[in-house]
Amino acid sequence: MFIGRGVNAMAIAGLSLTLPLMNISAAFGSMIGVGASTLISVKLGQRDTATAEVALGNAVTLNAVIGILYSIIALIFLKPTLMFSAPVNKRCHTPENTCRSSLWEP
């Protein structure tokens, strides 16, 4: 409601197109975060701070690498993914332009 009134209807369209991509990204981050926090908690309970620090470093590095790879793959396959998830009308913007404008343009 606030997006439609504050910006316009195209912002809502961009939001609905990018939400599945954001959910996949959050799932990868949660997967790594939950596993790492469990391992770190166990190691800190065993008073093994060296292994806990290594696990934290590995989790941060893995999240960064997966985030960069996911971004590259998402940008390469942006058009086919959006064409699969959104209908295109010749009078409207293409889903690719809607997604790009909702992500990078003010």
- The low-pLDDT segments are none
Number of strands: 0
Average pLDDT across residues? 79
* Distance between the ends: 18 Å
Q: How would you classify the helix and strand content by structural class? A: mainly alpha
| Backbone CA Rg | 19 Å
The largest sheet, given as strand count, sense and whether it forms a barrel, is: none
Strand content is under 5%
What overall geometry do the principal axes of the alpha carbons give?
elongated
- H and E string: HHHHH
Give the helix/strand layout:
Blueprint: H1 2-6, H2 9-45, H3 49-76, H4 78-85, H5 95-104
Describe this protein's structure.
This protein is mainly α. The chain has helices spanning 2-6, 9-45, 49-76, 78-85, 95-104. It is elongated, with a radius of gyration of 19 Å.
Offer a quick outline of the entry.
This protein is mostly helical. It contains 5 helices and no strands.
Q: Which structural traits does this protein have?
A:
elongated; 5 helices; mainly alpha; 106 residues
